[in-house]
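Pipeline run #58 for the internal structure catalog. This entry was flagged by the ingest filter as a single-chain record with no existing model, so it goes straight to prediction. Upstream metadata was stripped on purpose; only the residue string is passed forward. Reviewer on rotation: M.T. Logging verbosity set to normal.
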Amino acid sequence: MTGSRHNQRSVLSAAIAVFSQRGYDAATMDDIADFAGLSRPALYHHAPSKQELLRLALEPLLSALESIRLQQQAPHGPAITRLEAVVHQMIKILTAQAPCVTLLLHLRGNTDVERAAVSRRGAIDNQLAELVSEAWNENSIRSEVEPFTAARLLIGMINSTADGYRPSNGPTPQHMADEILRLALHGMRSSH
């Protein structure tokens, strides 16, 4: 990269790549500067610390996911319908920001920034779990299915889309969400 092409977006992309390759704890500002083709002082022009780079990298993803929760605050229609809408919105966001999702899912919570991100992710997961419980209470989910376990498995499927998503040669986010919902709500067993 040439110096004139460096902006915060390119620096954050470099930081995400380095954090993903080396792990957040092992990555250094020198690693990020080298990857971006910047001097260390030039990197500090964009962010004063590795923690700030992490915060800036994760903020758009977390804010987008939290906006889904805010949209779902007022109950409209059956919980199962709202659950389906949330899953579709989540998949759309996660596939659009897959490198950040992978980074978020691998954080250990060793710093204040990591702990805040993990906490925000936990709140998003809890919101989805509450929606699964509502659907269970409305008898939209089989009574023998334990809502907490179902929610954890659904969250796992949703999060896994970031690892396997390839926009150029795979299913669309819409199709992925449809398949997750089909598997989660109807199972894999054939009716034959």
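catalog note: The chain has two domains: 3-46, 50-186.
catalog note: Residues 3-46 form a domain with the Arc Repressor Mutant, subunit A fold (CATH 1.10.10.60).
status: ready for reviewer M.T.
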